[in-house]
Amino acid sequence: MDLSHHTVAVTGASRGIGQAVVRALLERGARVVAGARDVSALEALPHPNLTAVSLDVTDPAAARAFGARAAELGASALINNAGVGVFKPTEEITLEDYRRVMDTNVLGTLLVTQALLPHFQARRDASVINVTSDVSDRTFAGGALYTASKFAQRALTRALAYEGQAYGLRVTEIRPGMVDTYFADTQQGEAHKHGWLRAEDIAQAVVYVLSQPPHLRVDELLLHPVQQEVTF
Ligand SMILES: NC(=O)c1ccc[n+]([C@@H]2O[C@H](COP(=O)([O-])OP(=O)(O)OC[C@H]3O[C@@H](n4cnc5c(N)ncnc54)[C@H](OP(=O)(O)O)[C@@H]3O)[C@@H](O)[C@H]2O)c1
């Protein structure tokens, strides 16, 4: 699938799902504006179509600068992927945990989206893809903080879909189940992750969404490894 007509801004691009998305987009001819705090990981992926930008999504000035750079390069799509997870029983959640998870997953999505919206409103053909989670509408023991952030990200996604319809914005929620990445301070390839989704599977979903013809909007994709228990 040729995506050479796209310039895509990707957050959380230094490893895991974000880095796989960057690679898949570049392979299909897209230009990519990739943001993360660890820019060295992005600079190790030299490519003429890749612009690496230092980005902490929780920092309003950094989010604005990232959006401005992406707009200047003609961004046609934004992938809000940056995210962190902390899993603890409710009584153990600290204020620091709360701020880290909510600021990254919720405030970060809001700030980066806001930074690009004036440009997207002017274009009238842009796409926003938010990588949330299969737990953006259900929870579990130890999941209070993370799922609260993902429920909130889902709400941001859906409100934007309503608002964006007035200016041709296509908004998609991609909801992965278990993916083998570095998420929540783990390593890729740990034995217990055998059979989980690969970061490349989520990158393929992003490519699928961005490859659709102009009349088609993908509202949501829910992706699970076959071995994960069926839950809706
Ligand atoms: N892995 C799973 O099982 C799974 C399942 C469902 C949904 N997800 C979601 O998928 C997304 C990507 O996670 P992943 O699995 O790829 O995890 P990962 O391997 O830990 O990668 C997370 C990425 O987010 C970036 N990031 C974290 N805090 C950031 C900040 N303040 N500003 C900018 N970038 C930041 C990291 O880059 P820097 O540290 O360099 O900034 C990194 O590139 C997250 O939203 C996560 O909630 C993951």
Automatic annotation (TrEMBL):
UniProt-listed Pfam families: adh_short
InterPro entries attached to this UniProt entry: NAD(P)-bd_dom_sf, SDR_fam
Cellular component annotations (GO), alphabetically ordered: membrane
Coiled coil regions, renumbered to chain: none
Record key words, sorted: Oxidoreductase
Transmembrane stretches, start-end: none
GO function terms (MF aspect): oxidoreductase activity
Family: Belongs to the short-chain dehydrogenases/reductases (SDR) family.
Name of the featured protein: NADP-dependent 3-hydroxy acid dehydrogenase YdfG
